[in-house]
From TrEMBL:
This is Glycoside hydrolase. It comes from Aureobasidium pullulans. Residues 454-475 are annotated as: Disordered. Residues 1-18 form the signal peptide. One of its GO terms (molecular function) is glucan endo-1,3-alpha-glucosidase activity. Keywords: Hydrolase, Signal.
Length: 651
């Protein structure tokens, strides 16, 4: 008779510990509207989030006392629709909260059915506030909350060293300088957390010009909405938080445009030189969220409707005055650039397709044949690419297959004219879906462009060769493409293609079914002198053993290796969980100095025959130390379960 309650409890525990995706919601943008933002308005937001497979809103509240009525409306709406909410206390906007205010607010809502729970505890986050980290020992003891703050100003290690966080949320969602976003900040958090939960940020864009708040800069967006979700697949964090749902002032909103919330651009607030969110919809970025969120959570997702999303700025970077905007910001200790060096003059597009198709971009009558920079494994999934601003005028992005139109997005014009003569560095986003009948007839489409002007419509036709109504499943288990910075680029490109993509050195950009590498040999690979052992050891071991040993980075000659004397390691040891791995690997010459200590050298001892079995560190292990060791050991028949796995779902 006791079995059923136990099973129910176990199922409940599994449910709350599952991966989850949240969206950061700025409550202050709706707190003082007239007429007030109603429970019905909250229901509209929540339905949009639910249709995107978002699990909860992180309610950003500032220390201004204006949030009470809206919290009541939000929780009422969430309870009605079966949605979840949790608090994100903003310690930066209006200063620090008093300890008692935080305690009272958590205790008031933690028992509410709509409050998000983790392991039976109320889930609570922050935006900054490390100066009040000492408050949280008392807050946690009096509320029983699970505390996962954003203290990015301290860095990952500095934040965890405060000793009070149960996990960490990172606000490092945008790249610095004329570069694309990488996973290096995420890896630093996972390493510092040593198995504690990590909440990874994902954002599509960043541009702000609010002199009233001393803000006027951009960070590169461009390919980031596609790239960042691929990085989520690689990092596999415990939680993902989208930045943001409705931060209009920083241009990273994905909610439907709501002119009632644009007060922050006014003369009594941000004093923006113009409203750069007006008629600049971003809701199209939600179109593929169900697919990528399902893929992140379970490693598989279905395609019931093919579709297209495209985004671009409406003027080239050199068309008008920059408005004083900088690329990067000195306020955060960054080197500043002209913004046009960061923001690329391109039309970006992603398509969710059941099979390969062609893309064409027309700008004011100038037709360009597009290409796919990223192609999903097996042909089913999200394709991504871009073309330059070759032309001026209305933008049309069209996906075709065998001469039939799959989806077409009709967008606003690219011109050389700017409102008030100032460049708008925000993105315009449009989307279109194919017909759902699969009959080849004209389908119903959704497009941001149709919401801006009644003269701009998006027409779509379902394909005849691959009906959009046919569900297709994809598996995202193995890395099948990746990249790295500088000298790591070639190594990461090779090794990530075959499933070995250590996150401390490389960024996986695509996942799918395992690609079999070239036959493995017993050739050892070492970083050449001067290279970082923690970054290069595992990569050189993998690539050299599979026939690719680039001389600028790796060598199979131990005399040319870091601290090499020409002999091979024949015995070694490591601390704790590394002991067995180091003993095995060092015995056969692979003894990375960041993880192991070589205790004896001599002539090379041939290891057991190599196979193409991949090895990964199990969840919670230090990637920099374990990646190369697990890859070497597992490929040679020794894969200790407490440290390594050949199953990427357990990595």
């Amino acid at each position: 008779m006791l079995l059923l309650p136990v099973l129910v409890a176990l199922m409940s525990a599994c449910h709350v510990q599952a991966k989850a995706v949240f969206a950061h919601y700025i409550v202050g943008n709706v707190a003082t509207l007239t007429p007030s933002y109603s429970a019905a308005d909250w229901q509209k937001d929540i339905r949009s989030a639910q249709s995107s497979h978002i699990d909860a809103f992180a309610l950003n509240i500032a220390n201004d006392g204006r949030y009470g009525a809206q919290l009541a409306n939000a929780f009422s709406a969430a309870n009605t629709l079966g949605f979840k909410l949790f608090f994100s206390f903003d310690y930066a906007a209006q200063g620090a909260f008093s300890q008692q205010v935080v305690i009272d607010l958590i205790n008031q809502y933690k028992g509410n059915g709509a409050y998000y729970q983790y392991n039976g505890k109320a889930f609570v986050s922050t935006f900054e506030g490390p100066g009040n980290s000492g408050d949280w020992t008392t807050i946690k003891s009096q509320t029983g909350c699970f505390f996962i703050p954003d203290w990015s100003s301290l860095g990952a290690q500095g934040a965890i060293n405060r000793g009070v966080a149960d996990g960490l949320f990172s606000w490092e969602a945008w790249p610095v300088g004329p570069n694309d976003m990488t996973t290096q900040p995420d890896v630093s958090y996972k390493n510092a957390l040593a198995g504690k939960p990590y909440m990874m940020p994902v954002s599509p864009w960043f541009y702000t010009n609010l002199p009233g708040y001393s803000k006027n800069w951009l960070w590169r967006g461009d390919d980031m909405w596609y790239d960042r979700w691929q990085q989520v697949m690689s990092i596999q964090p415990d939680f993902v938080e989208i930045l943001t749902w409705n931060d209009w002032g920083e241009s990273h909103y994905i909610a439907d445009l709501d002119t009632r919330q644009f007060g922050l651009f006014g003369a009594d607030a941000g004093r923006a030189p113009f409203n750069y969110a007006s008629n600049m919809p971003h809701d199209g970025w939600r179109l593929f969220l169900p697919y990528v969120i399902d893929m992140y959570k379970s490693g598989k997702a279905s395609i019931s409707t093919e579709g297209l999303v495209s985004w671009y700025r409406l003027t080239p970077g050199s068309a008008c005055s920059s408005g004083g905007t900088t690329g990067n910001t000195a306020s955060q200790g960054q080197q500043e650039y002209p913004p046009a060096q960061l923001a690329q003059d391109k039309v970006f597009y992603s398509a969710l397709l059941t099979s390969t198709a062609d893309v064409t971009v027309i700008i004011g009558g100038t037709t360009q044949t597009g290409t796919w920079k990223n192609v999903p494994s097996g042909g089913s999934g999200i394709y991504h690419g871009s073309v330059p601003f070759n032309g001026r005028g209305a933008v049309i992005v069209k996906i075709t297959r065998n001469g039939n139109t799959v989806a077409q997005m009709n967008g606003l014009s690219i011109t050389d004219t700017c409102a008030n003569g100032i460049e708008n560095w925000n993105a315009w986003v449009g989307s279109a879906t194919a017909g759902t009948s699969g009959s080849g007839g004209s389908g119903v489409s959704t497009s941001a462009s149709s919401k801006v002007s009644s003269t701009l419509k998006t027409s779509t036709t379902a394909p005849t060769s691959a009906p959009a109504s046919t569900p297709t499943s994809s598996s995202g288990s193995y890395c099948i493409a990746g990249t790295g910075n500088g000298n790591l680029a070639g190594l990461c490109s090779f090794s990530c293609n075959y499933g070995f993509c250590p996150t401390n050195a490389c960024t996986c950009t695509q996942r799918g079914r395992q690609v079999t590498p070239p036959a493995s040999s017993n050739t050892l690979g070492f970083p050449v002198a001067g290279q970082d052992v923690a970054l290069y050891s595992g990569l050189c071991e993998f690539t050299c053993s599979h026939g690719y040993c680039p001389s600028g980075a790796c060598t199979s000659d131990p005399s040319k290796a870091q601290n090499g004397d020409g002999s091979f390691c024949t015995a070694g040891t490591g601390s704790g969980n590394l002991a067995g791995l180091c003993s095995f690997s060092c015995n056969y010459g692979f003894c990375p100095s960041n993880a192991c200590t070589c205790t004896q050298k001599g002539s090379q001892i041939n290891p057991p025959a190599a196979s193409n079995t991949l090895g990964f560190p199990v969840a919670g292990q230090n990637v920099a130390q374990y990646s190369g060791l697990c890859e070497f050991a597992c490929s040679h028949g020794y894969c200790p379960s407490g440290a390594c796995t050949s199953d990427p779902s357990k990595a």
